[in-house]
Design a protein that fits this description.
The complex is a heterodimer of chains A (263) and B (274). Chain A is an alpha/beta fold and 263 residues long. Chain A has 8 helices and 9 strands. In chain A, the strands form 2 sheets. In chain A, strands 5-6-7-3-8-9 form a 6-stranded mixed β-sheet, sandwiched between helices. Chain A has a 3-stranded antiparallel β-sheet with strand order 2-1-4, with helices on one face. In chain A, helix 3 crosses helix 4 and helix 6 packs across helix 7. The longest helix of chain A has 18 residues. The N and C termini of chain A lie far apart (38 Å). Chain B has 274 residues and is mainly alpha-helical. Chain B has one domain: MetI-like (MetI-like fold), CATH 1.10.3720.10. Helices cover 76% and strands 0% of the residues of chain B. In chain B, helix 3 packs across helix 11. The radius of gyration of chain B is 24 Å and the shape is flat. In chain B, 29% of the residues are buried. The chains are: A alpha/beta (263), B mainly alpha (274).
Chain lengths: 263, 274
């Protein structure tokens, strides 16, 4: 957990990867969920992991999060890692700031939790009970709870899946700005191709426990839903077995390209 | 408050019921108990209900006042409250200890839970003769009866509460580095608290019931002692006064738990909105 607050700048030599898996296999009984998977994530890299249900993406995230044991396997993960779950998983009996500070052991826990909450725009809900938060607010609290730990690896397990379309776009912007600010390596598990293309440096498609497709996305951010965006999107959808539809003029991404819609 | 009353009555009275002739009395839930009291009083006055069968409400009220002034009622009530309090306190200590052992460890469950389930199958009242043989007819068997009866609901609900804590919250807390004592204090015990309060409510009402039963054993003081004496002298007014006090005890116990819950479970959504 003892991560230096300021990481040294990477110079000539390529930095050691933040995450490294070699030949990682996981099975439940006879069911092979992940089959000889190789994966590295560079420091500060934003990776999105796509896949249908049952493709093993949650299993992979749980392993990287240390929730499932990876004993006897070639898996390297940093100690400073934090998860944002699909359901915010806030303790209902702890106030918002206490949830953010959960498990932190330091004298200045409250100010740090406050700073993190202000960063996600929740400076006014510090002492609220989680039951009074909206879905978006709960997820922002969960983000603050992850960030306050200064992770070198941030794991996002479909964190926006339960949010409405507009809140989701606002969350995308928030995650990108936090990522630019703190530069953790990010693994975003999602089943939303648009989300993956809008956010990630690299998109992986997981299928039957193997990485079926790897797509590096070089479009500059903020990403406009232009022709190049749709080309990438169509390619990924094709890999997922969806016959790529023409751009939908009424999709939320088109209507609010940068997601800067304030409710 | 008025909203709650309206809701309850709109639920209780479907629209096909004929319209009331006196709509002002539609919500007068005090009406029938008052009528009963009046009938009872009238019956006593005209001699239909002899005082040795049932004393008139006015006599009961007079007796209540006189017994309160003379200190007889408060003194005996204090003795009864003491018995219930000590019994419940003992039950709390035992039940919380066993509930934590059994809830927090698999070995604890294997060792403790079967004993508690066996104990559950024994009607506590049936233990009275054994307790008299062991502890005599003083205070000890009375307190022991109350404690024995109150242990089980406390234990069972604490155990169920601990085992029912949302595993996703436990997992999230683990992912943020909580383990052992921190996990128990921050996640498991607060999560088990609502269920524990359900147990406490049961335990309180059971301890009042057991108090009544236990005080039938040669009580030298307390509400049961008052009732036994009153029975010997056919003083039905005193008996009714004591019954009233028992009922008030039950109400007070419930109010106590409600207050505790409001303080301890302030985070619950239904209470947050108030």
């Amino acid at each position: 957990m003892a991560q230096p607050r300021i990481r040294p700048l990477v110079t000539a030599a390529p930095a050691a990867p933040t995450v490294s898996l070699k030949g990682f296999t996981r099975r439940f009984g006879d069911n092979v969920v992940i089959d000889g998977l190789d994966l590295t994530i560079a420091p500060g890299e934003f990776v999105a992991l796509l896949g249908a249900s049952g493709s093993g993406k949650t299993t992979l995230l749980r392993t990287l999060a240390g929730l499932d044991s990876a004993e006897g396997q070639d898996v390297t993960t940093p100690d400073a890692r934090a998860v944002v779950f699909q359901d915010a998983r806030l303790l209902p009996w702890r106030r918002v700031w206490q949830n953010v500070a959960l498990g932190l052991k330091a004298a200045d826990v409250r100010p740090r939790a406050e700073a993190a909450l202000r960063e996600v725009g929740l400076g006014h809900r510090l002492d609220a009970w989680p039951a009074t938060l909206s879905g978006g607010e709960a997820q922002r609290t969960a983000l603050a709870r992850a960030l306050v730990r200064e992770p070198t690896l941030l794991l996002l397990d479909e964190p926006f899946a339960a949010l409405d379309a507009l809140t989701r776009l606002k969350m995308h912007d928030l995650v990108l700005s936090l990522w630019r600010e703190h530069k953790p390596a990010v693994l975003l598990v999602t089943h939303d191709v648009d989300e993956a293309v809008a956010l990630a440096d690299r998109v992986l498609v997981l299928d039957k426990g193997k990485i079926a497709v790897e797509e590096r996305i070089t479009l500059e951010r903020p990403r406009q839903p232009d022709a190049r965006f749709h080309a990438v999107r169509r390619r990924l959808l094709a890999h997922l077995g969806v016959d790529a539809p023409a751009p939908q003029p009424n999709s939320a991404l088109l209507a609010f390209p940068t997601g800067e819609v304030v409710l | 408050m008025s909203l709650a009353v309206t809701l309850r009555n709109s639920q209780a009275r479907p629209s096909w019921l004929p319209k009331l002739r006196w709509p002002r009395l539609a919500n007068a839930r005090w009406l029938s108990p008052t009528l009963l009291l009046l009938l009872w009083e009238a019956g006593a006055r005209v001699g239909l209900i002899p005082a040795r069968v049932l004393a008139a409400p006015s006599t009961v009220a007079e007796t209540f006042w006189a017994m309160t002034i003379s200190g007889e009622l408060p003194a005996n009530l204090a003795v009864s409250l003491g018995r219930a309090g000590v019994g419940l306190g003992l039950a709390l200590v035992v039940a919380v200890t066993l509930g934590l052992i059994s809830g927090l460890s698999r070995w604890g469950e294997t060792l403790v839970d079967p004993l508690m389930q066996i104990k559950r199958t024994l009607p506590v009242v049936a233990l009275t003769p054994l307790f008299i043989v062991w502890f005599g007819i003083g205070e000890v068997p009375k307190i022991a009866l109350i404690a024995t009866a109150a242990v089980f609901p406390l234990y069972l609900n604490l155990f169920a509460g601990i085992r029912g804590v949302d595993v996703r919250l436990v997992e999230a807390a683990r992912s943020f580095g909580l383990s052992g004592r921190d996990l128990i204090i921050n996640v498991i015990l607060p999560g088990a608290l609502p269920s524990f309060f359900v147990g406490l409510r049961y335990a309180l009402s059971i301890s009042v019931i057991m108090l009544v039963i236990a005080e039938q054993i040669n009580a030298q003081a307390g509400l049961g002692h008052l009732i036994n004496n009153a029975r010997d002298f056919m003083r039905t007014d005193i008996i009714v006064v004591c019954l009233l006090v028992y009922a008030l005890l039950g109400l007070a116990a419930d109010a106590l738990v409600r207050t505790l819950e409001r303080k301890a479970l302030a985070w619950r959504p239904n209470l947050v909105e108030q």
